[in-house]
Amino acid sequence: MACEDYDLAKIISESIIEANKNLIFLVPTGSQMEKAGKKLNLKVAAEIFADRNYEDDGNLISRKKNNAMITDPKIAKKHIIKMVETQALNCYSGKQIPCEIDSVCVHGDGKSAVNTAKQIKEGLIKSGVTLNPLDKMKKFI
Predict the structure, then answer these.
(1) Is the distance from CB of 49 to CB of 56 less than 8 angstroms?
(2) Average pLDDT of 21-25?
(3) CB of 137 closer than 8 Å to CB of 45
(4) DSSP-derived 3-state class of residue 27
């Protein structure tokens, strides 16, 4: 809900500031959570999803739809590498939406999650991407 509702995203951001303003706020890229966190000067890390397809508005396709999930690790790897290289979301329709990318999520509830994560890691490294924990990223040091 906070991905689409700025007021809710702002309340979450304010709560993080109250708890510990030095925490890194991990949010879906392009979301209202990203906007609220940045507006309140939080450390914001933008995340994309390896095993999910995107609508043309940048939201994830509902899991109720057949095309929501990417279950083939090789397709997920291509999906992620293209997004990282272009710094844009790959929408299911083919549209690309420019965005920031700091993190990749692989949902652990899929049968191929471990293999998907391994293939993505190998693919990103082969593509020349340096992988770091969030707190070691240049933007947070």
Answers:
(1) no
(2) 96
(3) yes
(4) strand
The tokens describing 129, both together, are 């991407």
Percentage helix, strand, coil for the chain under 3-state DSSP, each rounded to 5 = 40, 20, 40
Q: Give the per-residue pLDDT at 39.
A: 98
pLDDT at 108: 85
C-beta of residue 106 within 8 angstroms of C-beta of residue 117: yes
Cβ contacts of 126 within 8 Å, gap of 6 or more = none
Is 98 in a helix, a strand, or coil? Answer: strand
109 pLDDT exceeds 90? no
Full-model pTM: 0.91
Cβ contacts of residue 135 below 8 Å, gap of 6+? Answer: 24
In sign, the C-alpha dihedral spanning 69, 96, 32, 25 is positive
Alpha-carbon gap, residue 119 to 133, rounded angstroms: 18
Instruction: Give mean pLDDT, residues 108-134.
Output: 93
Number of helical H runs and strand E runs in the chain: 4, 5
Q: Which two tokens stand for residue 1?
A: 């809900």
* Contact call for residues 119 and 87 (beta carbons, < 8 A): no
